[in-house]
Design goal:
20% helix, four-stranded parallel beta sheet, single chain, alpha/beta
Length: 98
């Protein structure tokens, strides 16, 4: 779904949570979401560096493998974009299924 296709039925800003925002695709999607005046929250495992949009987003540190750490990231979110992968893992297919 393109950023301009998100349902904007109210005058309030829509909050989009991006999982995998610091990856290749996520790092290109976030500026597009911001350009369309969407409120962006990024879930990260460690402090992101080098992204020019960092000051314009809400960054939440959490780990998808630790469900108790996720509540804050998903609070008040209208849309979730899942761009996480585990290709660097030894058994990435099993990790992805989890």
């Amino acid at each position: 779904m393109a950023p301009d296709q998100l349902d904007r039925t109210s005058s309030d800003s829509r909050r989009v949570l991006v999982l995998g925002a610091t990856g290749y695709i996520g790092g290109r999607l976030v500026p597009e979401l911001l350009r369309h005046d969407l409120e962006v929250r990024c879930l990260v495992r460690s402090n992101p560096v080098g992204q020019p949009w960092l000051d314009a987003v809400d960054v939440v540190r959490a780990d998808l493998s630790e469900p108790d750490s996720l509540a804050e990231a998903f609070e008040g979110v209208d849309t979730v974009v899942y761009l996480v992968h585990s290709l660097g893992e030894d058994d990435f297919e099993r990790t992805e299924l989890q």
